[in-house]
Amino acid sequence: MTLADTWLKGSQELLPETIALRRKIHEHPELGLHLPKTVSAVREALAGLDVTIEEGPSSSGMVVTLAGPSQGRTVLLRGDMDALPMPEDTDLPFKSKEPGRMHACGHDAHTAMLAGAVKLLHRNRAKLAGTVKFMFQPGEEGYFGALKMIEDGLIDRHPKPDGAFALHITPNVPSGMFTSRAGAFMASTDVINAKVTGRGGHASMPHLALDPMPIACEIVMALQSMVTRRISAFDPVVLTIARIAGGTTNNVIPESVELEGTLRSVSETSRNTAKAGIKQVFQKIAEAHGATGSISFRQGYPVTVNDGRMVSLARETATSLFGARGFIPAPSPVMGAEDWSYVLQRIPGCMVFLGVAPEGCDHHHAAPCHSNRMLLDEKAMANGVALYAAVAERFLEQGLPAQ
User: Fold this and answer.
1) Cα(25)–Cα(116) distance, rounded to whole angstroms?
2) Total-model pTM
3) pLDDT less than 50: residues of the chain
4) Is the CB of residue 164 less than 8 Å from the CB of residue 314?
5) What is the DSSP string of 22-49?
6) With b meaning 16 or more CB within 10 Å and e meaning fewer, what string describes 357-378?
7) 378 an active-site residue?
8) CA distance 342 to 338
9) Residue closest to 196 by CA, chosen among 241, 239, 227
10) At how many degrees (to 10) do helices 381-398 and 3-27 cross?
């Protein structure tokens, strides 16, 4: 039996356990940096294995280390564990039992697949030419969980990883297929908080007030024009003002209006250009109307930049396991953001998407990640476990390919 056969056969054998763990986590989603139930479920799944487990002081982040018979290289595999603060509107028998919480981004599947990879590689540790570290990460959904684990020293601890690899599911790719690209793969993210301040008054006499509402609306439209005229179409950004709040009743002009939005970029150049343009447009339009405008940016995750060498290794591994159609090159970056970006700033590596389009559903129309109706094909998780194991084995044996 070849190693490829070993990973494929083993991941299929582990699929019932992988599904069971995913469903257990799905029923009890947890938010943020502290996930006691999820970590307990992972520890229970790994009980009896000859691995070391380390946790940091600032979160539930956990690194599981599996050493092969020789020292050699070290590779880091990652799965995030946290859920989203949103309701679940599916008919699954194992739907969330926690009101207002849902695993709508597939982190339950990521965790279950990574635990499956620990088991599969542990069975075959004699074949490993080095060490595998498994990063079970909390707080990806806006809590900077990867950065917390780095700051706790869990990632750089000896032996420090020479390469890093992560999977993320998506219902909008055919089930069982993988996709990625070299370079910018996911966007940076920044939160915009702004305020237009005028003068309040009676709604029947706007000339005696300074109405901030039409000024805010004008600013929103002007910002969209700024993006299309000052940002290169080949280095794009997405700017969305998602909330406008002001006023208390129908016959009162409010003194101020608040705006909140998000900026997504795929390079620091476009990110900085957009921020400067947003600030200028906001303040100058408010000023032109005699109002004042204040704006601030809350910096989020940086651009997720894949190392082309690790993408090549993942592509070659996926096609050796699943054939030529096992890997589909991604034509462009995704405007979602990931704190895996912090790891990739330190270690050459990549993220790869695993398609999990539900059976009988066109992947183009499947409910996406972050939808209250998101579903996934659990059978595809076997492919994820196999790729985790095969990428680790190949990296430890060969290292990064030459570009």
Assistant:
1) 14
2) 0.94
3) none
4) no
5) HHHHHHS---TT--HHHHHHHHHHTTT-
6) bbeeeebeebbebebeebbbbb
7) yes
8) 9
9) 241
10) 130
Q: Show which of 283, 299, 315 is a domain's final residue.
A: 299
From the list 301, 342, 388, 393, the catalytic residue is 301
Q: Please report the pLDDT score of residue 4 as a whole number.
A: 83
**What is the greatest pairwise CA distance in the chain?**
84
Of 30, 141, 338, 378, which one is the catalytic site residue?
378
Q: What is the pLDDT of residues 32-56, one digit of tens each?
A: 999 999 999 999 999 999 999 999 9
Q: What is the pLDDT of residues 99-155, one digit of tens each?
A: 999 999 999 999 999 999 999 999 999 999 999 999 999 999 999 999 999 999 999
Whole-angstrom distance, CA of residue 80 vs CA of residue 78: 7
Same domain, 150 and 201: no
**Residues in contact with 90: Cβ distance below 8 Å, sequence separation at least 6, in sequence order:** 372, 373, 374, 375
Are 87 and 129 in the same domain? yes
Distances from the Cα of 74 to the Cα of 152, 165, 168, angstroms? 19, 11, 21
Tell me the CA end-to-end span of the chain in Å, nearest whole number.
31
Overall domain count for the chain? 2
Q: 22, 377 in Cβ contact below 8 A?
A: no
Q: Are residues 204 and 263 in the same domain?
A: yes
